[in-house]
Amino acid sequence: MDYENLLVEREGAVAVITLNRPKVLNALSPALIAELTQALDAFDSDPLVGAAVLTGGPKVFAAGADIADMADRTPVEQVQRDQTGRWSKVTSFGKPLIAAVNGYALGGGCELALMCDLIIAGDSARFGQPEINLGIVPGAGGTQRWPRTAGKYVAMEVNLGGQPIKAQRAYQLGLVNRVVPAEVTIRVAVQLAQQLAAKAPLAARLAKEAVNQSLELPLKEGLAAERKNFYFLFATEDQKEGMHAFLEKRQAEFKGR
Amino acid sequence: MSERTETQAVLEYEVKDGVAWLRLNRPEKRNAVNAELRAALAEAVRRAERDSQARVVVLIGSGEAFCAGADVVEFQEGASAAERIRGEYESILLGLHEMPKPTIAALNGVAAGIGMSMALCCDLRYAISSAYLREAFVHIGLTVDGGASWLLPRLIGAGKALELMYTGDDLPAEEAERLGLINRILPADHLESYVADLAARLATGPTQALAAMKRSVNHAASTTLEEAIDFEFLLQGVMMESDQFRQRVRAFVERRR
């Protein structure tokens, strides 16, 4: 598949998706998001892919949406284009999705990173929601995912103040899993993705789904869903393989069945 | 060897043998920082960071003093002045502390207040025996600035740092050397030549490795040992792929044969 706004590669069981509009700091145009959704859909149903990395390359993750494209839009046009609604498909990707963030992840770029399952940040990374400086608010989860990640007070600071926060602070806030030298961000993310891709695929899918549900369900329902997943997985070949390999002190070979 | 000299009214910027010399040049005011010098310093630090001919940066004063502090005349403007000058000081202090090349303060005389802070922000400090440092703020009923609260305890411990702040007493070069604050004391007529030799030597060193050492030390200031080891390991991995590393290892091995 050829993409105009993305570079897509495979490294073993890991798909690496690079936002590729460097001239505009990877501004997230509707066309780019459409391609991203398409790429993720393809990898979701590809049994050879176990995890994916989403990055903007060595310099910048994504510095937001296309302001020039939005400046003179009407509300009706925005609804018709459903500009940010389409992004939610990124969160329905069923396999582990790791953001590898170097430089700015601002506005939509930050929201895109927050939609991923884990975030590896280069020491140059900056996360922020500068929408307030343009007289708008985030439209793809900025006001909703920040408080769920970093708490209400940090979310207020970021959404009301419009100033980006640095990688190390993001790490201390629990937004970022690991801060690494910017030169190796993508490589570290790919290595981590490879580790995750080697796990039992069905278990990974259900674990991801359950963790995401935990942010929305009452604890009782979340625990019930988790318990069903736990019992269900005893119906899989991978559970048998995983447990027997453990007992036989050998590496498990999972098949996704 | 590229040589460039530029004399501005209050600050000289000269590149010689791969070393950028930033010379504070208000000797009649003991190089006190006024608005003009502050702006010139901020610009010179930015320039030194970008200057590919400058692989090491030296900060030094002309005349009898390194820098006697801020021009107190400006303090009389009150809090509004503080807000205005903050951005420029941040550029100078963080610039020296974070730029990916060695920075050296050559203390040819007193370093007080912001002058002391600038010296603390450098990686290395050399002084003549009659030089001294002073946290002068207490004398005008003010608390410290320029990052002294962060930098000084890290270099000499909180007890010593607070003693200097509370009393505002002079810290003679000799005692500063004993505390590890000054790397070495030199005879007055040798300071510049010693620093020039050392800086020139660092300028021919493995640039990338020196920058990485500084980056690791800075990163470690806000991390755990485990995270610091991780960061070092990753940076070393980047370095091992460089031609510089391969050439030096080859040369090292050949020398031993």
Q: What would you note in describing this structure?
A:
- The complex is a heterodimer of chains A (257) and B (257).
- Chain A is α/β, with parallel strands linked by helices.
- Chain A folds into two domains: 6-197, 2-enoyl-CoA Hydratase, Chain A, domain 1, CATH 3.90.226.10; 201-247, Orthogonal Bundle (Lyase 2-enoyl-coa Hydratase, Chain  A, domain 2).
- Chain A contains eleven helices and nine strands.
- Chain A has helices spanning 30-44, 67-70, 75-81, 108-114, 142-150, 152-161, 167-172, 185-197, 201-214, 219-232, 237-247; strands at 6-11, 14-19, 51-55, 97-101, 104-106, 118-122, 126-128, 165-166, 178-180.
- Chain A has a six-stranded mixed beta sheet, sandwiched between helices.
- Chain A starts with 5 loop residues before the first strand and ends in a 10-residue tail after the last helix.
- Chain B has 257 residues and is of the alpha/beta class.
- Chain B has two domains: 4-203, 2-enoyl-CoA Hydratase, Chain A, domain 1 (Alpha-Beta Complex), CATH 3.90.226; 207-256.
- Chain B contains ten helices and ten strands.
- Chain B has helices spanning 35-50, 79-98, 114-121, 148-156, 158-167, 173-178, 191-203, 207-220, 225-240, 243-256, and strands at residues 4-7, 11-16, 19-24, 56-61, 103-107, 111-112, 124-128, 132-134, 171-172, 184-186.
- In chain B, the strands form two sheets. Chain B has a seven-stranded mixed beta sheet with strand order 1-2-3-4-5-7-10, with helices on both faces. A three-stranded mixed beta sheet of chain B has the order 6-8-9.
- In chain B, α1 (35-50) packs parallel to α2.
- Chain B is globular and about 65 Å long.
- The two termini of chain B are 33 Å apart.
> Which strand order does the major sheet of chain A show?
1-2-3-4-6-9
Mean pLDDT of chain B: 91
Number of domains of chain B: 2
- Please give the CATH architecture of the largest domain in chain A: Alpha-Beta Complex
Which fold name corresponds to the CATH topology of the largest domain in chain B?
2-enoyl-CoA Hydratase, Chain A, domain 1
User: Which regions of chain A contain 5 or more consecutive residues with pLDDT less than 50?
Assistant: none
Strand content of chain B: 15-25%
Put simply, the count of helices of chain B is 10
CATH homologous superfamily of the largest domain in chain B - what is it? 2-enoyl-CoA Hydratase, Chain A, domain 1
Order of helices and strands of chain A: EEHEHHEEHEEHHEHEHHHH
- Straight-line N-to-C gap of chain B: 33 Å
- Biggest β-sheet strands, sense, barrel of chain A: 6 strands, mixed
Overall radius of gyration of chain B:
19 Å
| Number of helical stretches of at least 4 residues of chain A | 11
Assign the structural class of chain B, choosing from mainly alpha, mainly beta, alpha/beta, alpha+beta, or little secondary structure. alpha/beta
- Alpha-beta content class of chain A: alpha/beta
